């Protein structure tokens, strides 16, 4: 599993912070979050329990998959 796999998973099927997927891939989830590619932030000062891909994360995913975006 790679950070790109985590991004693709969270884009297609977001997962919770305490899910089996998050626990089994904790280091990669942390890498993606630290790089600003995924977040649990819903609004200023409001955080949830579901990981979601950020615009930067989606752009990075497209680059890594060789998809040209605008």
Key terms:
single chain; 70 residues; alpha+beta; two-stranded antiparallel sheet; globular
Short précis:
This protein has 70 residues and is of the alpha+beta class. 50% of the residues lie in helices and 20% in strands.
Write the layout of secondary structure elements.
Blueprint: H1 3-12, H2 20-24, H3 26-34, E1 38-43, E2 46-53, H4 55-65
Structural write-up:
With 70 residues, this protein is of the alpha+beta class. It has four helices and two strands. It has helices at residues 3-12, 20-24, 26-34, 55-65; strands at residues 38-43, 46-53. A two-stranded antiparallel ribbon has the order 1-2. A hairpin with a 2-residue loop joins β1 and β2 (46-53). The protein is globular. The N and C termini lie far apart (28 Å).
- Can you tell me the residue ranges where pLDDT is under 50 for at least 5 consecutive residues? none
Mean pLDDT: 94
- Shape from CA axes? globular
Backbone structural class? alpha+beta
- Count of discrete alpha- or pi-helical segments spanning 4 or more residues: 4
The total strand number stands at 2
Q: Which sheet architecture does the biggest sheet show?
A: 2 strands, antiparallel
């Amino acid at each position: 599993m790679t950070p790109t796999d985590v991004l693709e998973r969270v884009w297609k099927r977001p997962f919770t912070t305490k899910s089996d997927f998050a626990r089994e891939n904790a280091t990669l989830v942390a890498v993606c979050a630290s790089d600003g590619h995924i977040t649990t932030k819903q609004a200023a000062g409001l955080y949830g329990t579901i990981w979601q891909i950020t615009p930067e994360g989606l752009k990075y995913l497209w680059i890594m998959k060789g998809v040209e975006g605008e």
